[in-house]
Specification:
9-stranded mixed β-sheet, alpha/beta, single chain, 3-stranded antiparallel β-sheet, 15 strands, 370 residues, globular
Amino acid sequence: MAGLYLHIPFCKRICAYCDFFRSAELKYLSDVVRAMHSEMDEQRDFLNDKSLETIYFGGGTPSLLHPDEFTRFIDHADALFDCNLLSEITIEANPDDIDKRYVDALRRTPVNRVSLGVQSFDDAELRFMNRRHSAMQAQDAVKRLQDSGIENITIDLIFGVDGFGVDVLRRSVLTALSLGVQHISAYHLTIEPDTAFGRRLRRGELSEVAEGQSEQEYALVEELLTASGYEHYEVSNYALEGFRSRHNSSYWHGVEYLGIGSGAHSFNGAMRRWCQQPLPRYIERREYESETLSMTDRYNEYLMTSLRCAEGVDLRYVAAHFGESAQSQLLSLAQRWIDENKLLREGDTLRIPTSHFLLSDAIISTLFEV
């Protein structure tokens, strides 16, 4: 099984924290869509596994497209690949795009999952992040989707934002819970250099939150969501039973995927490839960079993705695919964290308890083979 990712790199407004490949030059939208269809034809043989399980429209802001465009992409994928087992088709959307007319058109498409970039249910925090919707618009969007019959909705939230503490976060999480969505992603803000927040940080107009506040906010999210029946299955992701993101899970479990669009990445089991060009160049001719993964790369990537998930590392898999010596080295390096209960050894599984997921990057980096 494989996944198809389609990157729609357009936004009406650039959020203050965003470091994704995106553009506000909407004049290129129709030409980029045509180029993406051409790229699908050109790259149909990149995947070894031609059977698609998931399609994901990410961005940018995919909801800038009319829903009919999603259907055209899905039909095109069906002509190129085996879509008989296609089970999840997701679009990312901005809440203020989700009016009644848009939802009515969306329900005529095969899309069955919507990811809403809410980020916060506090209007002051939304303005601070330069989001273009209000808290009420976000709530209305969820309800409108639910009323239309869409039964798989996920909300993105951000925490760890300077000037907004535990009380604001608690209200946002409780509002999300009150809406009865099936999935919630909660991301700690990372301030990247080439963003509005990064520039403010350099000018001294913004601070990163203290470690203690990060831990407090993380613990609050963990407590509220798990107490409400959400499984904490990946560092930033919580789902009700049966509603894990199948597409994103494929990234974490080494499944092949084809990325279409400038800013999209692809992986076919051995090679990682990406296309990131200024849009006028992308429209004219696609150019790619790539890397072939060494055995060390594959091992480190397996550790990184597995330890970010609740299931953790399968020690038998490590021995079978990377050798007994790799397993022994892993257990030796892991012992310091096991002694501190920040890694748990349970039979043939090594995992980070969810209470320490906030430290996952620090833990995992000490286990890499170099």
